[in-house]
Amino acid sequence: MLNRLNQLTRHFARPLYRPTAPLSAPSLSSRLSLPAMTSAAHAKPIHTAACLIIGDEVLGGKTIDTNSPFLAKFCFSLGIQLKRVEVVPDDEEDIMEAVRRMSERYDFVVTSGGIGPTHDDITYSSIAKAFNLNLKLHQPAFERMKKLSRPHPMQPNFDWETPSPGLTAKLRMVELPFDEKIPAEHQAVFVADDMWVPIAIVNGNVHILPGVPRLFEKLLENLKPSLIPRLSDPEGKGTFRFMFSTPLPESAVAPYLTELAAKVEPKGIKVGSYPRWGKKRNTVTLVGSDLALMESLVKEVEEGVQGQRVSKEDELDPAEPDQVYSQ
């Protein structure tokens, strides 16, 4: 797995450098103007999201998925409701079923993994098949790949213009699902000038990203400006989480929280309760986008749980050794 991760990192990012000559492809600013990113297939408002993690290595315990937690925080900060996270193997049928279902049910779908140069990197082909599309060489991505990446030192005779197994492997990463009915610029976008890898967009809402965490994170962060105009809250205020530390067990606060939830959840405020095993204090949360309403509830919640609003869960933890208490 480590060798595979290193290989993908080399292909996507490690060899990156700034060429002295300008890129033959248009610059980021000219290619990714806001109107282009928010028109046609990108016009649908975003309320909900889903994440599909693709890879045998995650299911086999060889690597830990950090991309879905990053996406969860990313969505939370923008006020997008991440409704589902799934992990599937490098299996065509599993990928096809999951991506079709997610695309139908959620506004913003992100996939992670399976877009490298090897035989088991089947994400592009599987998603293309899921929506009855063909794969097509994305020429701008190929040109950027040639400009921004260098062949591996162990491939001294590699040539971009000479057919070879190595070139065929690299081309797998720029052969993207293509819908003849949609303008090409709406099917793959470049969000960073120093990266050749595009974000392929299928069926208007499926965004295909690499699984290498630092590449996944950078691409997602750079995609943010194009997402903000499509949010329920276009100012990008996001979602807020208030935490309350209480010395009471969950069973003691349950009646009050039930009443509170019935009152505020219809107004978009979710109430949560989280035991902290082995600690003397538990945590109650309010999550929502109406900051004024949440602020107005602080005193009531503090009284209801006999606790105090905190900025971090362990803020009021006593210094003495912890004991396990009944919840």
Automatic annotation (TrEMBL):
This is MoaB/Mog domain-containing protein. Gene3D superfamilies: MoaB/Mog-like domain. InterPro entries: FLAD1_M, MoaB/Mog-like_dom_sf, MoaB/Mog_dom. GO terms for biological process: flavin-containing compound metabolic process. Residues 303-327 are annotated as: Disordered. One of its GO terms (molecular function) is FAD diphosphatase activity. It comes from the Eukaryota. CDD domains: cinA. Residues 50-230 form the MoaB/Mog domain.
